[in-house]
Amino acid sequence: MRDRLRGLWARLLAACFQTRCIACKAWASAPLCTSCDQPLPPFPSDACPRCLGSQTPCPLCTASSPLAQVYAAAPYTGLMRLAIHALKFDGRPELADWLAAHMTTSLPQLDSDWILVAVPLSGDRLRSRGYNQANWLAQRIRGYAKAPQLLRRSRFTPSQVGQGRDERWQGMRDAFEASPDVKGKRILLVDDVLTTGATLTWAAHALKSAGAAEVRALVAARAQLKKKGQVSVE
C-alpha cells in the first residue's frame, strides 16, 4: 500500500506541476533534465557474452540455463539505477519511455515472430503496488507482439531486496507457471533489472518446460555481482 500511495503522489505532482530531475533534483519538464541525460556507461569489455555479467565463472551461464541470451541497456549503476528506482518505487511511467528507448537500442533486430512477455508480479504485489513496471517497459518496445497472459506467478514470493544469491534462487524456484500456448514459440522476457538471474531463469525454465522453442531476455540494466559461484536450475 505504501508503494502504491507513493507512486500515486509522484504521478499527481508530475501531472500538475513541473517535476524534479531524478539526478540533480532541479525543477524540469521531464524526469531527466537536459544536463543530466547523458550517455550511459558501457559494459566491461570482458563481460559475459551471454548475460553481460562480470563474474568468473559466470553464475548464470556455466549452468544449463534455459535462458539463451540476455540483452541489457547498461550496467545497474548511476543514472540507470536512479531511473529504475523511480520507475519501480515511485510509480513514474514516464521513465519507462526513457528506459525502453535505451533497451530498444541494445536489442538486435529479431525476427517478427518473437513475443514479448513481461515478468509478472504476484497478485498480492500487483494489488499492493498498483502496477507492474516490467509491463510498462514491455508495452513500449515496438515491433513485437505482447502476450503477458503466457506467464503467471504461481505463488507469492517475498521481496528479494537484501537477499543473497542462494536465497534468491531458492525463493524463486517454481514461482512461475507458463501457458500451454507457448509451445513452439520464441519468447523475449522483459524485466527492469537482472541481478543474480534467479527471476529470469526460473521464468524461462517454466516457459521452456511448457514447450517454448527459445527464451531470451531484455532488461534495462544488468547488475555486476562481486562474488564468484555457480548456480543451476536442475
Walk me through this protein's architecture.
The protein has 234 residues and is α/β, with parallel strands linked by helices. The chain has seven helices and nine strands, in the order H-E-E-E-H-H-E-H-H-E-E-H-E-E-H-E. The chain has helices spanning 2-16, 78-90, 94-106, 123-129, 133-139, 165-172, 198-209, and strands at residues 19-20, 27-28, 70-75, 115-118, 145-146, 151-153, 176-178, 186-194, 214-222. A five-stranded parallel β-sheet has the order 3-9-8-4-5, with helices on both faces. A two-stranded antiparallel sheet has the order 1-2. Strands 6-7 form a two-stranded antiparallel ribbon. Strand 8, helix 7 and strand 9 (214-222) form a beta-alpha-beta unit. The radius of gyration is 17 Å and the shape is globular.
Radius of gyration: 17 Å
The largest sheet, given as strand count, sense and whether it forms a barrel, is: 5 strands, parallel
Instruction: Look at the structure and give the mean pLDDT.
Output: 85
- What's the count of strands? 9
Q: What is the helix content?
A: 25-40%
How much β-strand is present in the residues?
Answer: 15-25%
Task: Give, in order, the helices and strands.
Answer: HEEEHHEHHEEHEEHE
Strand order of the largest sheet: 3-9-8-4-5
**Stretches with pLDDT under 50, minimum 5 residues:** 228-234
Shape: globular
Structural topology:
Elements: H1 2-16, E1 19-20, E2 27-28, E3 70-75, H2 78-90, H3 94-106, E4 115-118, H4 123-129, H5 133-139, E5 145-146, E6 151-153, H6 165-172, E7 176-178, E8 186-194, H7 198-209, E9 214-222
